[in-house]
């Protein structure tokens, strides 16, 4: 039985991906800091074999323990490691507390780095796939979420680097680049004037992509040959514009100036 290990498995995209892969007959390992969230996700997986692992992705040593526990339960298998855990930090960059900036980097970037580092030997053995959650914010920098954008650019670049490096080991490396997924992270992203990202998206009449669509595209990313998988119309528009309309994107990012 194939096996996937998912960080941020207690909610949002991680939960939706767990449900999708479980429905295809996969074993699922859920990792999160929320025991209650993982239990709720596990209850949605029907008869699929599932294990839960309390994991702070910032802790490199904890990664070793969690993956050892998971592969013990899975009979040594780790076919997909989904580096999905992340947080949103927004607001005026210069006013953002130092500890919040550091926390965002440590979770969104270093959590992905540590997961890849700890997971390499298992993925090499299985000829498996590393799937990282980046973001449309990693396509072109977004005002009001500067540090979040920076971490997602870094995840995108890290994915591209490992795609070149790990092909010799038979490991597929892929990235998801979602735009606006209807999850709780949007409510925790203040982007100025006390407005959340969710409120900003609604005011701009942009779309929310269902989390189930993100899960379906995660499945396609794992099984396909595309390095970056764009999730949502906004992500696809940004990808196009970043290549062919960079001047217009810059002007829009600067409020038309």
Q: What is the name of the CATH class?
A: Alpha Beta
Overall helicity: 40-55%
Number of helices: 9
Structural class: alpha/beta
Strand content: 5-15%
H/E series: EHEHEHEHEHEHHEHH
Low-confidence stretches: none
* Shape, principal axes of CA atoms: globular
Total domain count: 1
Which sheet architecture does the biggest sheet show? 7 strands, parallel
Total number of strands: 7
Distance between the ends? 55 Å
Biggest sheet: strand arrangement: 3-2-1-4-5-6-7
| Arithmetic mean of pLDDT | 90
In words, what does this structure look like?
- The protein has 257 residues and is α/β, with parallel strands linked by helices.
- The chain has a single domain, classed as NAD(P)-binding Rossmann-like Domain (Rossmann fold), CATH 3.40.50.720.
- The protein contains 9 helices and 7 strands.
- Strands 3-2-1-4-5-6-7 form a 7-stranded parallel beta sheet, with helices on both faces.
- The longest helix has 29 residues, at 98-126.
- 46% of the residues are buried.
């Amino acid at each position: 039985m194939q096996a996937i290990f998912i960080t941020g498995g207690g909610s949002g995209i991680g939960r939706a991906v767990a449900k999708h892969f479980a429905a295809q007959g996969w074993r699922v390992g859920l990792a999160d800091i929320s025991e209650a969230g993982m239990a709720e996700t596990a209850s949605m997986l029907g008869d699929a074999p599932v294990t839960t692992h309390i994991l702070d992705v910032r802790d490199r040593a904890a990664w070793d323990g969690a993956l050892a526990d998971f592969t013990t339960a899975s009979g040594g298998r780790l076919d997909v490691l989904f580096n999905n855990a992340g947080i949103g930090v927004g607001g005026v960059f210069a006013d953002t507390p130092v500890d919040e900036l550091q926390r965002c980097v440590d979770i969104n970037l270093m959590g992905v780095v540590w997961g890849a580092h700890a997971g390499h030997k298992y993925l090499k053995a299985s000829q498996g796939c590393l799937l990282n959650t980046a973001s449309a914010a990693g396509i072109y920098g977004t005002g009001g979420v500067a540090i979040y954008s920076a971490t997602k650019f870094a995840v995108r670049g890290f994915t591209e680097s490992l795609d070149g490096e790990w092909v010799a080991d038979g490991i597929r490396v892929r990235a998801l680049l979602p735009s606006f997924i209807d999850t709780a992270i949007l409510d925790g992203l203040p982007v100025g004037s006390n407005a959340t990202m969710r409120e900003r998206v609604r005011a701009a009449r942009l779309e929310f992509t269902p989390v189930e669509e993100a899960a379906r595209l995660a499945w396609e990313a794992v099984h396909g040959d595309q390095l970056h998988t764009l999730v949502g119309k906004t992500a696809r528009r940004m990808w196009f514009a970043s290549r062919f309309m960079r001047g217009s994107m810059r002007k829009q990012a600067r409020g038309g100036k």
